[in-house]
Amino acid sequence: TSYVVNPPKTDKSMRTVTITRDVVEVLQRQRARVDVLRDDHGDLWQGTPAIFPSAVGTYMDPRNVNRTFARWLDRATVPAIRVHDLRHTHASILIANGCDAGVVSDRLGHTNVAFTLQRYRKLFERQRRGAAFGIEDLLKAHRISQAHAGPVALPS
To answer: Disulfide engineering: 113 pairs with which of 13, 22, 105, 125, CB 3.0-4.6 Å?
Structure first.
């Protein structure tokens, strides 16, 4: 089986995405593993630029990627999801942690923020409700402090 690698769908798909130091370290260890595989296979190595190639340096068959991913999830004892679901999981975690819609949109390579807001509407709605509760809690705390300590000046 041969695979065709095409350029990204849009210009915005070619972008720099910031990653954490631990992700960089994992990728460096993987690159070292690939270097060992390449050296072990010599002339049989069919070097692709893949970070996670097959045992002989070709692109991995998507079915093998899915099987490997399923094994990893099983070992980690986490719910089964598809590889593509990692993208949505990432977006969901960003939104749940209060990340700005523009930043989420940029990381996902969406052409505009409106698409991101529509796609993740329910998650952003939870975030908006949470913001309302935060303001309510702040006002309650202010009222309580006024009742117990007299007038309190709020920062302007």
So the answer is: 105
Residue 117's CB is within 10 A of a number of other CB atoms, namely: 17
Q: What is the pLDDT of residue 4?
A: 79
Tokens 């679901």, residue located = 85
Burial 118-152 (b: 16+ CB within 10 A, else e): ebbeebbeebeeeeeeeeeeeeeeeeeeeeeeeee
Q: How many CB atoms within 10 Å of residue 95? A: 20
- pLDDT at 146 (0 to 100): 60
On whether the pTM is more than 0.70, the answer is no
Q: Please tell me the distance from the alpha carbon of residue 61 to that of residue 28, in angstroms, as a whole number.
A: 23
Cα dihedral 64, 71, 40, 45 in deg (nearest 10): 20
Contact 91, 120 (CB under 8 A): yes
What are the C-alpha distances in Å from 138 to residues 94, 129, 133, 155?
A: 24, 14, 9, 13
At 117, is the secondary structure helix, strand, or coil? helix
| CA-based max dimension of the chain | 82
